[in-house]
Design a protein that fits this description.
Elements lengths: L1 H27 L13 H4 L4
């Protein structure tokens, strides 16, 4: 039984670290805001087949 508790404790710690890392990314990483434009050639819009 002690090995089961040790296994569950290790899994719980790893899951906690993963959630903590995701939470830190949400708080500290800011996305770049801005407009993006890309020109599309007419040949790709109306292929001549």
């Amino acid at each position: 039984m002690p090995t089961l508790f040790r296994f569950l404790t290790i899994i719980a710690v790893l899951v906690g670290l993963a959630y903590g890392g995701m939470y830190a990314l949400v708080l500290f990483v800011k996305p770049n805001k801005g407009e993006m434009t890309e020109r599309i050639p007419v040949e790709k819009l109306n292929p001549q087949n």
